[in-house]
């Protein structure tokens, strides 16, 4: 059971059951005593320099990361997709949307990463032209999530997604479509619009079924496709009439 430390005003007085850190330090030090609920005292001494300044100890920052791999090239002969990520071939917003899709898959406790999760990832990232276009047409994250649960159902509460998520076949094809489209057009990087259109290109995918149920159609796909070449950011700052 973890104990709750309390500060003692008698830090300079020797006490029984006391453990001192830095016992061999010869430099002046500041002493701090901590007393647990079990009355065991822990004395911390921090050495200070001759100038009187407290020495600083460097600590490594730790963070939890979600491993993910984005395909970066397609082999036209074998049809296999390389899985070594090259971030420069993907826009920053596309990478973030993909990472968010992995988190959504884990939240829903699904075994594989699919087109429906990538669609949610696009909307969670939220700052790309594709995401803004979807919201302008009434397609929001909450609606997509609700529709996804209607189509795919809920996972068992006790199930946990694998550490490394594999991709569904429709998502593999959607990402390959996005890469190929970028290659054919000669554009510098695959952006979020390419990802959205890749989802729409897979007629039997859950992502397309969700989009169709929420009113997305070929006409809207054609409309957003016209903006794909200009990237994820809308540079038109003119006020809408």
TrEMBL record:
InterPro entries attached to this UniProt entry: Clp_N_dom_sf, Clp_R_N, CLPT1/2
Superkingdom assignment: Eukaryota
Ranges where the record places region Disordered: 1-30, 66-88
Keyword presence, Nucleotide-binding: no
Residues of the signal peptide: none
Annotated ranges, domain Clp R: 87-232
Keywords noted in UniProt: Repeat
Family annotation (PROSITE patterns): CLP_R
Gene3D superfamilies registered for this protein in UniProt: Clp, N-terminal domain (1.10.1780.10)
This protein's name: Clp R domain-containing protein
């Amino acid at each position: 059971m973890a104990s709750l430390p309390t500060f003692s005003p008698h830090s300079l007085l020797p006490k029984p059951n006391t453990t001192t850190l830095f016992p061999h330090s010869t430099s002046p030090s500041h002493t701090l005593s901590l007393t647990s609920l079990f009355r065991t005292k822990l004395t911390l001494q921090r050495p200070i320099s001759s100038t009187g300044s407290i020495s600083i100890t460097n600590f490594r920052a730790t963070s939890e990361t979600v491993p993910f791999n984005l395909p970066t090239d397609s082999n036209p002969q074998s049809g296999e997709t390389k899985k070594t990520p090259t971030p420069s071939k993907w826009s920053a917003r596309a990478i973030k949307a993909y990472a968010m899709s992995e988190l959504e898959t884990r939240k829903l406790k699904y075994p594989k990463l699919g087109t429906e999760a990538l669609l949610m990832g696009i909307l969670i990232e939220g700052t790309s032209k594709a995401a803004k276009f979807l919201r302008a047409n009434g397609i929001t994250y909450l609606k997509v999530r609700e529709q996804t649960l209607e189509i795919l159902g809920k996972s068992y509460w006790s199930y946990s997604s694998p550490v490394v998520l594999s991709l569904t076949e429709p998502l593999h094809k959607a990402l390959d479509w996005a890469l190929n489209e970028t290659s054919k057009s000669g554009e510098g990087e695959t952006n979020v619009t390419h990802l959205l259109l890749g989802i729409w290109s897979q007629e039997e995918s859950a992502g397309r079924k969700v989009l169709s149920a929420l009113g997305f159609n070929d006409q809207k796909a054609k409309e957003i496709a016209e903006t794909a070449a200009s990237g994820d950011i809308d540079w038109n700052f003119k006020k809408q009439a």
